[in-house]
Each structure stands twice: as structure tokens, then as C-alpha cells.
Amino acid sequence: MSDxxxxxxLWKVLLASLLAGAxxxxxxxxxxxxLSGGRTAGxxxxxxxxGLCLLVVAAGIAVGLYVMLAx
Length: 71
Known about the structure:
71 residues; mainly alpha
């Protein structure tokens, strides 16, 4: 079976897709929690953290698009 399927490359693709897929979804959910409000004292920190999380998500999307379109 290894003549037809490169298992090392398959594991790398599986790991990258799990990290990117589940990881970006988790970071996006943290951004939503930060934007949801909460205490008045922590609202500015929550929005700043949410902004940082959304930048990470946008960067992940940009990298994904670059990888897909570059090849």
C-alpha cells in the first residue's frame, strides 16, 4: 500500500488540516467570547483580545488562500 500512498505526507496533511480547521474555529470562538461583553472593567481588554484573535483568523485565512492559489 505504501507504493500508492505516501503515509508520511498523509499524516502531515491530516495534522495541518486539524490544526488549521479546529484551531482557527477555536480562536474565532474566543474572539466571539471577547466581543460578548461581560464586566465593564474587562470590556476593553476583551475587545482588544477579540481583535487580536480576529487578526489571527484573518492571517490563517490569508495563508490558506495563498497556499491553495500558489500551487
